[in-house]
Each structure stands twice: as C-alpha cells, then as structure tokens.
# Entry
Amino acid sequence: MVDFRFYAPTEVVFGKESEEHLVEMVRKYGGRKLLLHYGGHSAERSGLLGSVREKLNEAGLPFVELGGVKPNPRLSLVHEGIELCRKENVDFILAVGGGSVIDSSKAIAYGMKYDGDVWDIYARKYVPTETLPVGCILTIPAAGSEMSDSSVITKEEGDLKIGYSNNLCRPKFAIMNPVRTFTLPPYQTACGATDIMMHTMERYFGKADDMTLIDNIAEALMRTVKNCVFHVLRNPEDYRNRANIMWASSLGHNDLTGDRGYSDFATHQLEHELSAMFDVAHGAGLAAIWPSWARYVHKENVARFVRFAVNVMDVPNDFTDPEATAMAGIEAIERFYRAIGMPTNIPELIGRELTEDEIKELARKCSHDDGRTIGGFKVLDKNDMTEIYKMANKQ
Ligand code: NZQ
Ligand code: ZN
# Structure
C-alpha cells in the first residue's frame, strides 16, 4: 500500500433529527455571530431556512444573511460576503445548501483572514494560514464539499473557474438530513450521483497500485450510488436510498476512497473549463467528458478498466479479450448516464458542437497557457486536452 495521510475532521450529524443539533454544533465550534449563507430559492421553499432562523433566534445567536449563491459560485458574491462579515463582525459561516454554497462560504472564510483580494488564494499568489470556521447544512449530495478540503470559485472576468484545496477549509460540522433531498429535481439528483461516483472514479483510476482495501471500498461506493439513483429517480421520497446517496457524497470525497496525491482528477479539470465557459451543471459536464477521457487513456492500464467494467458496471469478463471488456465497461457507463438523463458528450451537454476556437480556448485555459499538465493515470498536456475535447465533441 502507498503511504498516505487521512484527515477528516468534520463532525457529521446525520439523519432525520440532525437539524435539531444545529445550535449545539455552532456553539461547540465557537460561533457567536453568524453569516447565514444560502443559494436561490430551494432552501426557502422547503422551509429549511425558516426553521434555521427560528432555531438561531430562539437560542439568541445573532446572524446576518446573504443569499443568492449561484451554481458555479461567483467571486463577486464572495467579495460581498467578506465585506458584510467584516462590517458585522461575523465569526462563523453557516452554509445552507450544496457544493456551491459551501464553496462560497469557504472562500468568504478565507477572505476574512486575508487583507488582500481573496482571489489571490485561488490564483496561487497567497497561501492562507488561517480561516473563519465554516459549518454546513447539506441539501444536495454531490460535490462532497461538506467534508472536503476544496472550494471552487468562478471569477466572472475571464470566466475563470479555479479550485483551491487546503485542510484549513474542511467544515467543522456537516448536518445531513436526507429528507431535505426529497425536493431535488431529477436532473440535479442525477448530476449529484454522477459527481459522487466521479470523485471515487478519479481516485480509482489513479497511479497507485496495491490498494486492495481502498479499491473494495471504492467499488462498493460506486455500485451503491449506481443502484440507489434509480430508486430515488422513481420515488424521490425514498428515504433509504436518498440516505445512502447522501453519505456516499461525503465518503466519496473525504479521501476514504483514496489519497488525492495518487489520484487522477483530469476529468474534473477538463470539466471545470466547460462549466466556466457554458455555466453547465458540474455533474453533467463530467458525464460529457469521462467516456472520451477513458477511451483516450485506457491503454495505460487496461486491467484497471477491466476491473471497473466487471466489478462496478457488471460487464461479463471476456478473459480472451481484455480490451473488449474494458471498452464494454465504458459503453456500460454511457448507457447508465443516458438512463439517468445525463449527457455522454459535449453536444448533448450544451446543445451544439464546440467550434474549433472554443476547443482551443478550453485547452488553453485548462493547460494554463501550456504551463501545466493534468492527470495521474496518464499525464495530459495541452495537445492531449485538445484531443479529448475533440473526442467529446462528437455525438
Ligand atoms: O440555489 P438553490 O435554489 O438552492 O438550488 C440549487 C441549485 O440550483 C439546487 N438545490 C440544492 N439543494 C436542493 C436544490 N433543489 C431542490 N431541493 C434541494 N434540497 O441544486 C442546484 C445545484 O446546487 P449546487 O450547490 O450548485 O450543486 P453541487 O453540490 O453539485 O455543487 C456544484 C459546485 O461544486 C463544485 C462544482 O464545480 C460546482 O461549482 N465542486 C466542489 C467540490 C468541493 N468543494 O470539494 C468538488 C467537486 O468536484 C466540484 O468541483
Ligand atoms: Zn466533482
């Protein structure tokens, strides 16, 4: 087994009664004046925000509010949040929502402890040494930000979507009530399932070998999500399957299924450029890229693709032809994506083909002007990125 570190400090309160522990959690982690940060309308409509306000008011915990976080959260709102928190002497950020709200909260938390522009942190010009504490009430299982060390922010100017990872920003607590996910539309449910599986796939198709225990955990997680998603698409109020997906969201990205140092994450990097340029849902963007990435890189380790095909996608093993089994696994996940309403290529994602100039621009940005490579399973340079975007551009 490879050497690794595992750090998962977030206290998880899971289940139907979890929200009852909100005030106790805020107090435990030192919150005295809160920013209540949230997205569009879903948490208001479901009554969750009303119930949070009531609990904080009853406990005499003062708070200010900032809503309006959009999927692919924007830097301008982060700036607004930092200004508000400074003015109001906020010392704790409570995120109510999904990855976008939690990531925006993490960015505000960084910005509160840095005198310069918080974007410097994402642009790798400044390494933060402290941050305000963040706690969250998760409403969509997908990004895994509730336990992860990452936040991904979009700077409107130049459509730059950049992630930054640092253990400092892992939330202090995550309250997860699967009932709150009953209201998710089918598309968001499917995007979430795709992202959860992908966080594990990015690690599974990494560069480490001899990961018997981790591989077995990873396969169980991927199979679980793959099966549960059909149940919740049929019956959105299926608690058991919603609960399994919700917990998989956290375990898929808290490094239980593999240390990120040994992982790939090229599909994520390629996707971030798509959601920056076209403002698409992250999970759908991943589904549009992965099959092309997989076909492009599979020769690096055909045996791993065979294992994925057989153990995760239930493809019969043709022992005489590993290449055919590997390909059948990729085709099986394309069928899975179609069955849950996800795209399998870029035209299905954005409704048209990319132009040549757009492909060039995506590869330019993803390669940081030809200044970096991505991936671990196969290291990809700008030319490889261009080829994968081209492959994904075919229906
Ligand atoms: O804004 P509202 O009205 O709340 O609607 C949201 C939003 O439109 C809706 N929604 C959330 N909970 C709901 C609900 N609708 C009905 N009922 C509920 N219970 O769902 C939509 C999507 O929400 P969002 O937070 O954007 O989804 P997700 O959790 O997928 O987050 C996506 C963002 O996370 C980043 C992505 O790049 C993207 O920007 N990621 C963050 C990661 C991290 N921090 O570790 C890792 C990921 O790989 C990912 O890159
Ligand atoms: Zn993701």
